[in-house]
Amino acid sequence: MLKQLKKEILSHANPEKARLLQRFFKTGKGQYGEGDRFFGITVPIQRKIAKQYKTLPLKEIEILLQDPIHECRLIALFILTAQFSKAEAEKQKKIFDLYVKNTKFINNWDLVDLSAPYIIGPFRRYKNKSILIKFAHSKNLWERRISVLATFDYIKMSHFHTALRISKILIQDKHDLIHKAVGWMLREIGKRDQKQEELFLKKYYTIMPRTMLRYAIERFSEEKRQRYLKGIIKTSQ
């Protein structure tokens, strides 16, 4: 089944699109996606392929997830998320374990963003969140981003504590992709409860990276945005 799936993936390859994607996902030397390779397949086509192979066994999904081609890894994650959503508790645990075991292959922002909120988040929803704290302290950029994006599941249920705790840990992270992720999650909290978001911002907005702040206050009124950006909002001690 895996061999057939790989043939299907390859049949959609587009070398010109692949070159564009390699630039877009920063695959050059020293960039966050250094060395990643693409076939140049659009996400809708990848989702369609994943749907066709949604019953792929976990052992074969893991092989696909470790493939050097970006689209193979994303298709593997699409299949995993689809299987997780319909699985009983025992299989969900196997999917979760497979995911955690292979985080080094979930190594670009799209791979994280399209999987962590649908596997890591839901699996830990009513359980201990220590793995998210561990990931937030990781030296691995993508594990740190997983820790942030996993909390989207809780935010959508108006449970903000874990997201705010992760945000505090990462408040002065050095990487732009973490700044964007934390700011995004803070903005999502604000959509549901702006008071809660502002309680956090008033404590930390003066020390958080500018990109993080800009993402977090994106939906505020222009007047309030400017007050935050100019540092004239009263801080909470």
TrEMBL record:
- Which CDD domains does the UniProt record give? AlkD_like (cd06561)
Cite the InterPro entries for this sequence. ARM-type_fold, DNA_alkylation
Q: What is this protein called?
A: DNA alkylation repair protein
* Organism field: Candidatus Roizmanbacteria bacterium CG_4_10_14_0_8_um_filter_33_9
